[in-house]
Amino acid sequence: MILLQIIVLALIQGVTEFLPISSSGHLLLVPAVTGWPDQGVLTDVMVHLGSFFAVVVYFWRDCVTLTKGALDLLRGRTTPWGKLALWIVLATIPAVIFGIFLDKIGFMEVVRTKPQVVAWNAIIFGILLYVCDRFGMTRNLMVNMNLPQALIIGVAQALAIIPGTSRSGITMTAARVLGFERAEAARFAFLLGIPAIAGAAVLKLGDAVSEGTPITWPMILTAILTFFVALGTIAFLMRIIRYVSFLPFAAYRVALGVLLLALLYLGVPLGTVN
């Protein structure tokens, strides 16, 4: 990969993985604008690892507290953070089951060649993000979450396997419906994303190893750049949503979806969904 491609991939992954604006929608635009070939499975692994470490570093206090809570549970002592750690694990299961099911029926292979799916999902779930944020109540804190609420958000996260949905977007949408404050909704979405992002990286790493793909310095550089971009993105979002609604992100998603549909209508070649 050339340096410009490394920078662009790091920016797209680092920004769109955490802002509720659909990473797959932006990745479709890259080949249309640049004409670059697919970066390969192992590069996808490296950018996911960069995103993973960004979440862990930014929320390190929460990660430490969750770990202590989980250890307390193993010792037979129940604490709010221990329950939350368990809820995160259980809320990850729907995405795993749904992902395996879609893989078994070959759904993802079909969707990879259907950019219009990404476009319509960007629009539909963008509108849903706005509606749920606009009318969602603000009364709940993450640490007081119960199991049914966590599972509902987990089921929502499972839908993000379908490209264009946005993992962070759909989980924040579900959390807002359940009455969680915007900052708390984003905080839980990011923590819930830790096992999801790590799992995706491990799966892609398995694919890369089976193909005998070597790890190169450009891949490592992409991961490092992604880490810093993602860290800045998380800090930006956690600060801005204390003062503004999700409306700007929802409007951007709708505009992105309309742009993709327009390009498809004009016959502009778009890439496949990663």
- The outline comes out as globular
Task: Provide the number of structural domains.
Answer: 1
Low-pLDDT stretches are: none
Overall pLDDT metric: 89
Helix content: over 70%
The N- and C-terminal alpha carbons lie at a distance of 17 Å
Work out the strand percent: under 5%
Question: Could you outline the blueprint of secondary structure elements for this entry?
Answer:
Elements: H1 3-16, H2 23-34, H3 41-58, H4 60-74, H5 80-104, H6 107-111, H7 115-135, H8 147-159, H9 167-177, H10 182-211, H11 217-240, H12 247-265
Helix pairs in contact: 1-2, 1-3, 1-11, 3-10, 3-11, 4-5, 5-8, 5-10, 7-9, 7-12, 8-9, 9-10
Could you characterize the architecture of this molecule?
The protein is mostly helical and 274 residues long. It has one domain. Helices cover 76% and strands 0% of the residues. It is globular and about 55 Å long. It starts with a helix and ends in a 9-residue tail after the last helix. The mean pLDDT is 89.
Key traits:
0% strand; single chain; 76% helix; mainly alpha; 274 residues
Task: Summarize this structure briefly.
The protein has 274 residues and is mainly alpha-helical. The protein has helices spanning 3-16, 23-34, 41-58, 60-74, 80-104, 107-111, 115-135, 147-159, 167-177, 182-211, 217-240, 247-265.
